[in-house]
Amino acid sequence: MDLMDRIMELTEQGYCCAQILAILLLETIGEEDPGFVRAMGGLQYGVGYSYGCCGCMTGGTAVLSYVIGQGYGEADEGREPYDKELHRKVLTDFTQWFMEEMKSGFGGIDCSTIIQGSMARCIEVCPGIIAATYEKCMELLEENERL
Question: Torsion-angle region of residue 81: left (phi > 0), alpha (psi -120 to 50) or beta?
């Protein structure tokens, strides 16, 4: 199944953009973390239905941080040691890329700007944004030898 087909399948199951990013990451790294997927649901429609900052931007930073961020407890044993500078660099690279892409393609990074107040527009534009975000996150993780 290709990326867009998987995104559409998850969309039809009711997952929001940030949750889809989480599921795709977990499938890629071979992990299960339903709590992470549930928590990402809070980012939908611009963080808690505020139509503010796009859930792909916030979700993308969470996906990157899931892999390279600072962990906690025994469950984090066996992962790469935390590197604050790498974390900062990767998040900065991602957010700069996201802002440039969304501003040039849609006029801004807010959900309301991107979908222009139309839920129907979500179906048209959001799957492509999810795919591009996921691909950028994977590119950054690969470039920094974290995948």
Answer: beta
DSSP 43: G
- Across 95-109, b (16+ Cβ under 10 Å) vs e yields bebbeebbeeebeeb
CA distances to 25, 101, 109, 110 from 84, rounded to whole Å, are 21, 26, 26, 28
- Joined together, the tokens standing for residue 77 give 């044993």
Q: Tell me: the pLDDT tens digits for 46-98?
A: 899 899 999 999 999 999 999 999 988 776 777 888 899 999 999 999 999 99
CB 132 within 8 A of CB 4: no
C-alpha to C-alpha distance for 80 and 100, rounded to whole angstroms: 30
Cα angle 39, 95, 89; round to 5:
100
pLDDT (tens digit per residue) in 6-47: 999 999 999 999 999 999 999 999 999 999 999 999 999 889
Q: Which residue has the tokens 């962990």?
A: 71
- Cα–Cα dist 111/92, whole Å: 20
* Radius of gyration, CA atoms only, the chain: 15
Q: What angle do CA 145, 44, 118 make, to 5 degrees?
A: 120
